[in-house]
Amino acid sequence: MFLNANPTLVAIVAGVVVIGVLIFVHELGHFLAAKAVGIAVLRFSFGLGPRTPIGIQVGETDYCLSWIPFGGFVKMAGAEEFEEGAVSELEGGLAARVAQIPRERTFDAKPLWARIVVILAGVAMNAAFALALYIGVARVYGESYDPTLTVGVVDTTAIPMGAAGLRSLRPGDRIVRVDGDSVGTWGDVQSALLSAPGPRITIEVAGRSARVLLDVGRGLETRDSLVAALQAAHAAVAGQVTPGQPAARAGLEAGDTIVAAGGSPVASWEAMVGVIEKSAGKPLALEVRRGGRSLALTVTPQATHVTDADGERRTVGRIGIALRFPVRRLGWWGSVREGTAQTGRAAGLILFTVKGLFTGQVPLKDVGGPIAVGQASGQFVRLGLDAFLAFVALFSINLAILNLLPIPVLDGGHFVFLVIEGVRGRPLSLAQRQRLTQIGFFILVGIMALAVGNDVLRLFK
Description:
There is one protein chain. By secondary structure, this protein is α+β, with helices and mostly antiparallel strands. The protein has three domains: 2-131 and 397-459, no CATH class; 151-232, Pdz3 Domain (Roll); 240-322, Pdz3 Domain. The protein contains 13 helices and 18 strands. The protein has helices spanning 7-36, 86-90, 95-98, 112-141, 186-195, 220-229, 246-250, 269-277, 332-359, 370-383, 385-403, 411-424, 430-459; strands at residues 41-58, 61-76, 143-144, 151-154, 175-178, 181-182, 200-205, 212-215, 230-232, 240-241, 257-261, 264-265, 284-290, 293-299, 302-307, 313-318, 321-322, 327-328. Strands 6-5-7-8 form a four-stranded antiparallel beta sheet, with helices on one face. Helix 5 (186-195) runs antiparallel to helix 6 (220-229). The two termini are 30 Å apart. The relative contact order is 0.12.
């Protein structure tokens, strides 16, 4: 019933759940670590700013909701750079209560190792939560895999330097070995290309004596481009149709086979995608086969901005359909391996994106805020619980990595302060820490303003 509700309502509720759960997990990490090393925790809050009337006092800790609906915090006694100024206001101004706490139970009185543990505990908890979710999803839902080994498309625009040999591959070619090792799924092909130890990679094709030779480096971006350039062949069958997207609105259903698009026959999923991508914002006629009968549908692909492997931005059409692959059931050990691999891939994706923001490969207008999180949450919750939980795990990794950025106010900034203290043998002065923390606060506010501004601009596009 909930999934059939207004999409905006679904997005709001799903976004609140995602952000709320991940804030709780992050702050719970700080809270448990602080308690474990004997630091007094004065407040455990959802949100920033002054406390709302909603909350409860248990012992020395006030568990509450605060008025500014961004983030949250665990207020520990004795984190001196927080006791006054902008950050103190964000945390509700608890300086008066700090004076009542014995010196030995304050943050700054603890040894350096204990303070580092407390600072990094939130990030560690988010990473552990993501890992647990990925393992749980793999155990309950299994691992989907692409059984095809047939080449569908070689994207010549994505071929990296040294990989010109890919141009010799043709649609219909079946890959049987990569670097001498047999492959059984398309995932095996991609993993072999990504993890090949040397710069030279060989691909063997059924029925062809000559091997395809690739002379590429070991860089992550080069290997990612290599994988992106080589696409498998699939039948043009809509395995999944996202509710509320153009395909669903046009009447397309899961299991439908698209036999023609724009008046031209399509022999594969890749050919169909090519036609759809070129039709952004324009009505497109589809001929569909469903249960032995033909249907004529009209869909208008939604204009979507994407970034190619070479960093070039372009606009393509999307209609909200996806392939559906077979599922392999996993035992506990297989689930742990798959969950760990998924966590690593998620971390790599986030790091690649963060690097792109700093190098200009990813434009700042792609930065999203709470509205974007809500929209994405709503879309994933409609795809099913497994897709939604995987999104929560990805966002948890995102939160962990962003919190490690060396910006005062964030955990990474506090960690830098502690590293400086360890190197110098004494901490920065209170005035220096407060000044840097205030700068970090304004940087964070600027980032939040950018993200919210981008969200608002997207709403009016």
